[in-house]
Amino acid sequence: MSILWWGILGSTLAGLATGLGGIPVLFPSLSAVSHRFRDELLGFAAGVMLAATAFSLLIPAIEYGGVWVALGGVVLGVLLLDLMDRFLPHEHFEKGLEGPRSKLREIWLFVIAITLHNFPEGLAVGVSFGTGNVSDGVTVATAIGIQNIPEGMAVAISLLGVGYPRSRAFFYAFLTGLVEPLGGVLGAGLVSIMHFFLPWGMAIAAGAMLFVISDEIIPETHHGKSARFSTYALIAGFGIMMLLDNLLG
């Protein structure tokens, strides 16, 4: 298949993993988890993202484009997410409302917040298939899919905790993963048209993911008595993804 189709397939499967993670919320016996466990799930997801950023995106970006291209791409990715974070209204369960005031319902502000997480992940998957080595793209898609499962579960449980019915909590968690194919199409399409964009795209996706990890996920999970548990969960996610990256790559 072409790079574009691999990017679409990989990012779609990774995005669907978010819905897979939300399935337990449909069953009372599986969804009765603590706030601490939700933070641990998100911490684990952050660790997986961090390892994928380092080993699957930044190292290849340096190999293909050099350290200055990689650094420039990271800066662009950070600035892109910073602008989106500042000018798109969105809401987090712990940090509350960010961006300009909006008349949108709270649930849609929350969906926008998760969308800001997932778009750079889809971009990372799409760009990673541009190396011409399918295993590179499969590694990144696997990483994003793995971290989307606990993220989807955490999102669904959080929605359930603020009063949403089980079916709607699952649906909204599933919905947040559907933005990843859009990022995948963009990343794979740009690499297909302009091959020189490959290291830039990898570094931009890496910078965007670093911004999400540092500005969004860690503050959401590292608070109160949950902080130390979330830290160990992050380290566990990082270690597991480091092993998978070497085994799959």
Q: Please give the number of β-strands.
A: 2
| Percent of sequence in beta strands | under 5%
Coarse shape: globular
The overall pLDDT average reads: 82
* Count of distinct structural domains: 1
| Oligomeric nature of the chains | single chain
Protein name: ZIP family metal transporter
Subcellular location: Cell membrane
Family: Belongs to the ZIP transporter (TC 2.A.5) family.
Transmembrane segments: 6-29, 41-59, 65-83, 104-120, 140-162, 169-191, 197-217, 229-248
Which SSEs are present, and which pair or pack?
Blueprint (H helix, E strand, L loop, with lengths): L2 H20 L5 H4 L3 H31 L1 H21 L2 E3 L3 E3 L7 H23 L5 H28 L4 H11 L3 H14 L3 H25 L5 H22 L1
Antiparallel strand pairs: 1-2
Written account of the structure:
Helices cover 80% and strands 2% of the residues. It has 249 residues and is mainly α. The chain has one domain (3-248). A two-stranded antiparallel ribbon has the order 1-2. Strand 1 (90-92) and strand 2 form a beta hairpin. This is ZIP family metal transporter. It is a multi-pass membrane protein. Keywords: Cell membrane, Membrane, Transmembrane, Transmembrane helix, Zinc.
How do you describe this structure in short?
By secondary structure, the chain is mainly α. The protein contains ten helices and two strands. A hairpin with a 3-residue loop joins strand 1 and strand 2 (96-98).
